[in-house]
Amino acid sequence: MAYDDSVFQRLLKERIIFLGSPVEDTVANLICAQMLLLAAEDPDRDIYLYINSPGGSISAGMAIYDTMQFVRNDVATVAMGLAASMGQFLLSSGAPGKRYSLPHARIMMHQPSGGIGGTASDIKIQAEQMLYIKKQMARLIAEQTGQTIDQIEMDSDRDRWFSADEAKEYGFIDHVVQRAADVTGSGGTA
Under CATH, to which class is 1-110+159-180 assigned? Predict the structure, then answer.
């Protein structure tokens, strides 16, 4: 954490985890460790994941996603600022009924992307993996939103931007909130 670590440690005591950067391995490992710690301290109280992220690594994001599913706790998600790409996926991966956005947050969905290089055989293998990941992500987002896989694939073919209200209508989130008091458990700020 490049900011003031004491602020983030204080937030963690309130069961708030903050994703405020691109999703990469170091950040993902820290977030996973924080979720595991909070789950061990109290397996019944919600964990709050606040997201202001442009997205990032699929493998790092999937580590966070899998940990969200692994812990017994509900993980409530809150978009603030920007939840794009993997940030959008983590936002919509929150516990059903506990996915929130602040009113001026922007949410963006698109298909996975990555660079491919190497021999023809390597390129073929990497392309197959990208197609597998694209289908896996579309299936998971469809489950989270109630949209069809075909709709997700069509809508994510290019960058698709959503306001908070549009994200609610699409199914990424359950609530657009103005204040912490509007979030279950006051969003960890009580």
Answer: alpha beta
